[in-house]
Protein: ABC transporter ATP-binding protein
Organism: Pseudohoeflea coraliihabitans
Amino acid sequence: MQHEGKEALLRTEGLTRRFGGLVAVSDVDFDILPGEILGLIGPNGAGKSTTFNLISGFYKPSAGKLTVFGENCTGKSPLTISRMGLVRTFQHGSLMPSMSVRDNILLGTIHGVRGAGKRRERAAETAEMLGLTPYLSEEAGTLPHGIQRLVSIGIAFAARPRLLCLDEPLTGLNQTEVANTLAVLEKIRDEHGCSVLLVEHNMKAVMKVCDRIVVLHHGQVLASGTPAEIRADKSVIEAYLGHRHAN
Ligand SMILES: Nc1ncnc2c1ncn2[C@@H]1O[C@H](COP(=O)(O)OP(=O)(O)OP(=O)(O)O)[C@@H](O)[C@H]1O
């Protein structure tokens, strides 16, 4: 499948994951295109984390196919997939709190950059890009939450992925920190052509920054389209309202 001449960076076809009798993700098809920020949203329990774990190799699919950068990656390990250029963060942070920001970012260069000098250069460039230069020598765990979240993105981006997958990077951030992080994501996309997959509950932020959005509900794709299309989609509105009423 091509989208206006663009070949997908990532494609799922019939992606399915069962946990015993529960089908967490069922027959999910979607693409991520070069240079786009794709939002993956859905009410609690919709299957977002499971999908995220499937595409980064942390879970093996029960059925279906995963293609990353044109290669069949179904059942491949997280390390193989990350070395190909799909790098992820984790919901509860991906940093080493007792290490400096510099050493944390250096962790992200281990597989992709040869030589200590080049690694330090990459870490410095990454910090500059994310506005983390003033914090390079600070112990990461002592920094404000918003800065720690950026360091987690910095570790992932230091590998210069072609596809950066972020698991709820905005949780617990204030408005200024959210705006700052969204600006960083746009910079990563605009200056490096890196695509971003954003799994996120902050709907306002998703609507603002994403080029396209895929909505999951009960483990299936309920809708996909531009933010304007998703905002106007009756089935999406019902899924979220129903969910809110259920709680
Ligand atoms: N390891 C697991 N074992 C059993 N069931 C699981 C497991 N992981 C997820 N599930 C179930 O699969 C369904 C989808 O869960 P998932 O965590 O993917 O949803 P989510 O959209 O990420 O939710 P949230 O927004 O609350 O994080 C839920 O019913 C959940 O209870």
